[in-house]
From TrEMBL:
Keyword Cell cycle recorded: no
Pathway: Cofactor biosynthesis; thiamine diphosphate biosynthesis
Domain Thiamine phosphate synthase/TenI per the UniProt entry, residue ranges: 3-173
Name this polypeptide is given: Thiamine phosphate synthase
Pfam families registered for this protein in UniProt: TMP-TENI
Organism, as annotated: Flavobacterium bernardetii
Keywords per UniProt: Thiamine biosynthesis
């Protein structure tokens, strides 16, 4: 199970992030689209170095080396070829997709990819897919890349996503728009672990 950071700074953010890691968070996608490079460096500095191996960096990829982060995420619109990285490459790549055709066409260098929004978004009201992504999974031909459900994921539909054929789920609004993000994380984690 993956958690994506709130796009904006929130109160007690680092305390919450460290608690999530302590509770067993496997991967934290650091997505702060409006952050400058200086703000991103400051953000990463505030995360305990023991947890940096669990970070996936969405922006300012050059900071990965400085903070010993080995996971890099590319947005769908970036159309970046991971092969441009030096061989042998020490990075694990992920990306974002919004339909099964794009997911199926991904290069083999991508370890995982988000497919979104699977359900109506919690953090972005009125943001939904043009197609039923749960139904399009039957058209999956790419089994080299881990398929991760994103968008509207919460404790009520995690099992639906996993039963439909997704390999993993990612949480954003479910965590950050909740009064008790740690409790919500643990509830979702319990469902994933029981699957």
């Amino acid at each position: 199970m993956i958690v994506i950071t709130n796009p904006f700074s929130i109160e007690n953010e680092f305390q919450i992030l460290h608690q999530l890691f302590e509770e067993g968070l496997a991967l934290l996608h650091v997505r702060k689209p409006t952050y400058s490079e200086k703000e991103m460096r400051s953000f990463l500095t505030n995360i305990d170095e023991n947890y940096r191996s669990r970070i996936v960096l969405h922006k300012y990829h050059k900071l990965a080396e400085e903070f010993q982060i080995n996971r890099i995420h590319f947005y769908e619109k970036e159309q970046v070829n991971p092969a441009r990285f030096q061989k042998p490459c020490r990075y694990v790549f992920s990306t974002s997709t919004h339909n099964m055709t794009i997911f199926n066409d991904l290069k083999t260098e991508f370890y995982s990819a988000f497919l979104s929004p699977v359900f109506p978004s919690i953090s972005k009201p009125n943001y939904k897919s043009d197609e039923n992504l749960l139904e399009t999974i039957s058209k999956r031909t790419n089994f080299n890349t881990k398929l991760v459900a994103l968008g509207g994921i919460n404790e009520n539909n995690i099992k639906i996503a996993l039963d439909s054929g997704f390999d993993d789920v990612a949480l954003l609004g479910c965590i950050w728009l909740n009064d008790n993000p740690i409790q919500k994380f643990k509830k979702c984690q319990k469902i994933v672990h029981s699957y």
